Amino acid sequence: MLGQSENTLLINALFAAASEAGKAGWVRFLERLCSVAHAEGAAVQILAPEGEGAGWQVGRIALPDAARLHPMRLDRVYSQIDLPGEVAWPEPLRALKVAAGGAGRVVLMIARSNRDFRAAEALALSTLAPHLGQAVMIREALGGERARAARDAEATAALGAGWLVLTPAGAVLEFDPRVAAEFDAGGWLRLRIGARPEFADPDAALRFRQSLAKLGEGGEVVRPIPLGPEGQGVLRLASGRWRGSPALIGHLRAMPLAEALPVARVAGALDLNRSEARLAALLCDGASLREAAERLGWTLETARSTSKQIYARAGVSGQTGLLRKMFGSALWLG
Q1: CA-CA distance, 173 to 170, in Å (whole number)?
Q2: For residues 3 and 144, what is the distance between their CA atoms, to the nearest angstrom?
Q3: What's the pLDDT tens digit per position in 32-77?
Q4: Residue 84: exposure state from Cβ atoms within 10 A (0-12, 13-18, ≥19)
Q5: Positive or negative CA dihedral for 307, 311, 312, 314?
Q6: What are the residue boundaries of the structural domains of the chain, listed by start?
Q7: 258-333 CATH fold
Q8: Could you give the CA distance from residue 254 to residue 191 in angstroms, rounded to a whole number?
Q9: By the 8 A CB rule, do 22 and 142 touch?
């Protein structure tokens, strides 16, 4: 029989595995199951509604194929003798299948190569039966949340956006490490937990203090704080809440450079050739025609005539219209 502590530790290991990303937690759970059941191997196989589901295994275990697993009845522990299939399973095995909501079905198996399992050893599967489906559903839900968070992070990274949380007095509570590293590398802004942001530009530091004072009076800060050369980065502060307490929420953005985008992407988005796309990127980044011509090794007249072709193809009337069209497009989203 499983002792109370063994029972609890096994269930805890199951839910820990469901809460973690990757396979390490499932490996630890299966190793504990092998120890409790005196098994040589153990496996979890998810039978997804469509396609092949995830699975993990440890030790020595031969896995029945899907044709044997799908006909299994729910919430019943099978042995190698009564496992579905025309041919008997050759080695000692215990298998349990339970429902797992939208994730489908999940099968938990233990195996060994010598003597059969005693009833007390196989009891571990029955102990886990009420919890296995719930654990897999938790894994599915958390996996969806992680996937959505990853997509959100990719989109904000492409747009150069990030966030910052401060106390009402201006000390850093949390921040987006990716964009903070970018600002730190540029020498514009340094963030440290528990300290006020450190600005390289004295004017930005002054604007920050003025913003704190305005927000402290219950007002709203309309103008963002420019960061970096020519305001290439910005910080906007607003009152908000963080984990239930009053806080200041900062929105950071390091304006992405069109020149850093793949030329083929710019050309395809605006129906330009590669030379036109290179000029369009420089103009989008704020270069004058003369500066762009020097960067490209062109004459000013060549840059001027090419710019007219760009504006015509993009359907805009000048550089301002080109900027508006490029910044409003999906160019930055990869």
Answers
A1: 9
A2: 35
A3: 999 999 999 999 999 998 877 899 999 999 999 988 999 999 999 9
A4: middle
A5: positive
A6: 4-153, 159-254, 258-333
A7: Rossmann fold (3.40.50)
A8: 15
A9: no
Q: What is the dotted CATH code of the domain comprising 159-254?
A: 3.30.450.20
CATH class of 4-153: alpha beta
**What pLDDT is stored for residue 232 in this prediction?**
78
CATH topology identical between 4-153 and 258-333:
no
Query: Both ends of the chain: CA-CA distance in Å?
Result: 57
Choice between 3 and 276, residue whose per-residue pLDDT is larger:
276
**For residue 28, how far is the Cα from the chain centroid?**
24
Give yes or no for a contact between 104 and 49, defined as CB atoms under 8 angstroms apart. Answer: yes
In the numeric block, the tokens 């599915």 are attached to: 140
Contact 303, 282 (CB under 8 A): no
Q: Report the predicted TM-score, pTM, of the whole model to 2 decimal places.
A: 0.69
- Reply yes or no on whether the pLDDT at 135 is more than 80: yes
pLDDT tens column, 140-192: 999 999 999 888 888 777 777 889 999 999 999 999 888 888 888 888 899 99
Using left for φ > 0, alpha for ψ between -120 and 50, and beta otherwise, residue 244 falls in: left
Q: Name the packing angle between helices 274-284 and 263-270 (round to 10°).
A: 90
Q: Under 8 Å CB-to-CB from 247, ≥6 apart: which residues?
A: 165, 166, 167, 168, 173, 239, 240, 241
**CA 291/CA 123 separation, integer angstroms:** 77
List CB contacts of 147: < 8 A, sequence separation 6 or more: none
